[in-house]
Amino acid sequence: MSKDASTQISEAYDLYADAIFRHVYLRLGNRELAKEIMQDTFVKTLLQLQKGAEIENIRAFLYRIAGNLLIDNVRKKKSVSLDDLQESGFEPSGETEEDLHTHLEGTRVASVLKLLREVDQTLIIMRFVDGMKPQEIAEMLDIEPNTISVKIHRALKELKSHLRSA
DSSP 3-state assignment of 135? Predict the structure, then answer.
């Protein structure tokens, strides 16, 4: 017998909410909007479960919903730039020089990441931020694992090239 919808969504939230938030935040650069999209992802998933949808891979389903919500958001409004964030009061919160360096390097990588094609950004975030294996990404995107590995390799090569010239 399958679990009820509220139990499934509660367990999924505990396991994947932080990862979904990081994934969305890196794509948007807006903490509040990332929280909103992460929450909407779980609400939409809960609604599907309540309708009786059988979801074999809840993680893949959550990422697919989050991806669709990101696309909807981009269609409505352009992403917020780092300059926009700073103008609205965002400042690096690192207290030590090392924290500040880590934050600045992360900001640099995030801004250069936006130079890549959307699909390459997604693959790099899923692999290195979300910690997914190529096999998991392949299942989510319905692509062969070897193809995913090659695409990740090429995206990393391009990212490194942009980082060197930035």
Answer: helix
pLDDT digits (tens, 9 = 90+) for 16-50: 999 999 999 888 888 899 999 999 999 999 999 99
Is there a domain that residue 120 lies in?
Answer: yes
Q: Which domain holds residue 151?
A: 114-166
Residue 81 is classified by DSSP as P
Among 53, 79, 105, which residue terminates a domain? 79
97-133 confidence digits (pLDDT tens)? 565 555 556 666 777 888 889 889 888 888 888 888 9
Same domain (yes/no): 71, 3: yes
Residue 94 domain flag: no
**Consecutive H or E run containing 93:** none
Helices 134-141 and 58-76: crossing angle in degrees, nearest 10, is 60
User: What is the C-alpha to C-alpha distance for residues 103 and 62, in angstroms, rounded to an integer?
Assistant: 28
The answer as to whether 11 is a domain residue is yes
